[in-house]
Amino acid sequence: MLIVENVRKVYRVKEKKGWFSQKWTEVEAVSDLSFRMEPGKIIGLLGINGAGKTTTIKMCSTLLTPTSGSITVDGYDAVREDRFVKSKVNMIAGGERMLYWRLTGRENLQYFGSLYGLRGQSLQTRIDTLLLQVGLMEAADTPVERYSKGMKQRLQIARGLINDPRYLFLDEPTLGLDAPIARQLRKHVKELASEQGKAILLTSHYIHEVEELCDEVYIIDKGRLVAHDTPTNLIQSLNLETALHVTIPTLSDALDHDLRQLAMRYGGQRQIAETDEQTWEITLRGDNDMTTPLLSLLAAHSSPVLQLHTEQPSLEDVILHMADRRGA
Ligand SMILES: Nc1ncnc2c1ncn2[C@@H]1O[C@H](COP(=O)(O)OP(=O)(O)OP(=O)(O)O)[C@@H](O)[C@H]1O
């Protein structure tokens, strides 16, 4: 288990004051943060304002020292026993950082493996296993500069798994990837947790990705934890409104009036948009499902229904709602 307890991180920043003098100011990036990572589980770290996600990941992977609080990994302290902790953790970042473009895929993995003290036959076997796993065996001896974006990202995964970490941090792993490659990567991440029992922490600006992958989500704002729960519970706890969209061919004044009355009766509101094709799209938001009364109302006005669908609130709505409330 990886346990983060009451961790705080303060950066000291030098600021110029006039021509000759300068002063130090402090930036509190993470404040009193606690969470856990367990084998086989994927947790999401979502941020609102200058949240401190990257700082948190760097502290957990021993790249930064917390100002106070503790991080332990299978009982080892991330500061005092960082050598043990390093062997159990690794990070995969999105984008095209952390790879050497002039080297081949295999040479990259040899280099990163050697940083973990791996060498000889066991390193070669590990590299072959990973190249197979991420589908890069055929391109193993091609320089990375000739790889496509998707191939580079797959090599990033192999690099992050080179030391067979039990705890894996994924920092915006699908950043800039095309939809099919991002989908493949999400499938791979799921398997790393469910089949290989890895404990995974994911940060992503693509909130649907967090909703799809994560068992639990931690939401932080200015370095402080503001919510922690499963995506489903977070959505339910805020009691967000369900949206009902209906498309009709004409909208009479009488129907418009009755739609407004209906929305008001259900504690919500209605929005009306005239679409390009001379149809009307009505959106009703309220506390309860309005499908049945809406259909009865349209039948009473002899209005045909061209399209009807409901939109359940998502984790994205939760984040937007919290960001609004916290003045982001
Ligand atoms: N090296 C540093 N020196 C000073 N301040 C820093 C440093 N790194 C980060 N910060 C500040 O700490 C806060 C948290 O930054 P961090 O990069 O951890 O957030 P983040 O949630 O990863 O943000 P983003 O999603 O924008 O990448 C921000 O206010 C940032 O300006």
Arithmetic mean of pLDDT: 88
| Annotation, overall tally of beta strands | 14
Number of helices: 11
Query: Which H/E pattern describes the elements?
Result: EEEHEEHEHHHEHEHEEHEHEEHEH
Low-pLDDT ranges: none
Tell me the β content: 25-35%
Instruction: Please state how the strands of the largest beta sheet are arranged side by side.
Output: 6-7-8-3-9-10
What is bound: which ligands? Answer: adenosine-5'-triphosphate
Q: C-alpha Rg, in Å?
A: 25 Å
Shape, principal axes of CA atoms: globular
**Termini separation (Å)?**
33 Å
The percentage helix is 25-40%
InterPro entries: AAA+_ATPase, ABC_transporter-like_ATP-bd, ABC_transporter-like_CS, ABC_transporter_ATP-binding, P-loop_NTPase
GO molecular function, one term: ATP binding
Family: Belongs to the ABC transporter superfamily.
Protein name: ABC transporter ATP-binding protein
